[in-house]
Design a protein that fits this description.
Amidase signature (AS) enzymes; two-stranded antiparallel ribbon; catalytic activity; AS_sf; Amidase_dom; Amidase
Length: 496
Amino acid sequence: MTAVPPSDSSFAKPDAAPAGADIVELDARALSRAIAERRVSCREVMQAYLAQIERFNPQVNALVSLQPAEELLRQADERDAQLARGERLGWMHGFPQAPKDLAATAGIVTTMGSLTLKSHVPREDAAVVERVRRAGAILIGKSNTPEFGLGSNTYNRVFGITRNAFDPGRSAGGSSGGAAVALALRLLPVADGSDMMGSLRNPAAWNNVVGFRPSLGRVPSVPARDVFYQQLATEGPMARSVADAALLLSVQAGFDPRSPLSLDEDPACFAAPLRREFKGARIGWLGDYGGYLATEPGLLALCTQALHHFESLGCTVEPVLPDYPMERLWRCWLALRGFVVAGLTGEVVANERARALVKPELVWEVEQGLRLTAADLWQATVARSDWYQALRALFERFDFLVLPAAQVFPFDAGLDWPKSIAGRAMDSYHRWMEVVIGPTLAGLPTAAVPAGFDAQGLPMGLQIFGPAQQDLAVLQIAHAYEQASGCTKVRSPLLD
């Protein structure tokens, strides 16, 4: 990256202005306030983040397609001029942002981690990008992702491997791995991500940050070829705290007429303080579904220990199992995921030249989808509906349900995916992430929050999910847990 020129802006600073290193440590709300009060200029914010990126990004490869520093500083100067005229676009005014490389960005290459799209420059923004731009953000590049977002390990043949923020020899998780690492290393103040099979949750857990998968329809995913049947994936926020994630959700959420199933509710509630009492709240601990899921030794013990933070809030925690055969849920998942992936990428795999450029897991996924019959899909959607009703029955007894956010700790960055866990073979490239499919298939709001660290200092997290469309309540309990645990205050050793 080219050197950042010195600031030539003349900004009124009535109070002490944070220095460059301090700027990147500010939480989103504090950074927004410092910019709005003109205690720090947008140029100074951009300089601070570009310096942080120059220092750490070469070690971890979290951000890609970075834009020229001179152009970014020019845009920052424009934001400063707007403030001088009394024009503030929104709370993200002057915030550097790097949308996930699955999200369309007008004028900036969007590869989806695939050689088949290495030069693709969209003409319009995805809704989440459009909304952060409108709120004043400046796009500095993209965050790295696996090819077409498949596989919870961020590597691809366009940009390479994204490495864990706590141990660069380990995987960052995925598919929002670049975003999670960028947050942990202060390369971004907040970040967008997306989630089908834990892509907001697994990388958050593995990098000690927060990810939030919103309710079905909370954040519109447009433009899209299909706006009715694709109901597995959703975009959502990531941040270094629950409050910052909620603040970003207040920008991302809201009805969009291009997305007929998007929720028409005022997202301003997510920008309000999250403090709430939870004495007497009932927490159901699903664990490994009674031994059904394979987990790495030590993982369940760590997550179980983290449950004490709920008890310190006055909650009751009780182990529970859903009245549902979990293998049926996995078969349901394979069918619905195969249907969606084959629809989205089938044309790529059908093209002989393009097929040679993509990873074998994508080819396998498409082939699985193309074998499905109408009867298979009907049975899968019935199984999904039955699963939702099984969870709804649990929510008559519990206010929230909790699961681990992954089944293994971060593994070697050079490994494509774990072939076994605790001696149990994984029969597909994504079976090792089965723990995340329950909330996805039910379309329920789910927060991933840090649970602590293993003996090697590797992070792990919890999933907290609640009833349909109770996004605010889930964010509130996640915030209360975060305050009790203090886990998000633990910084990457790379920063020391």
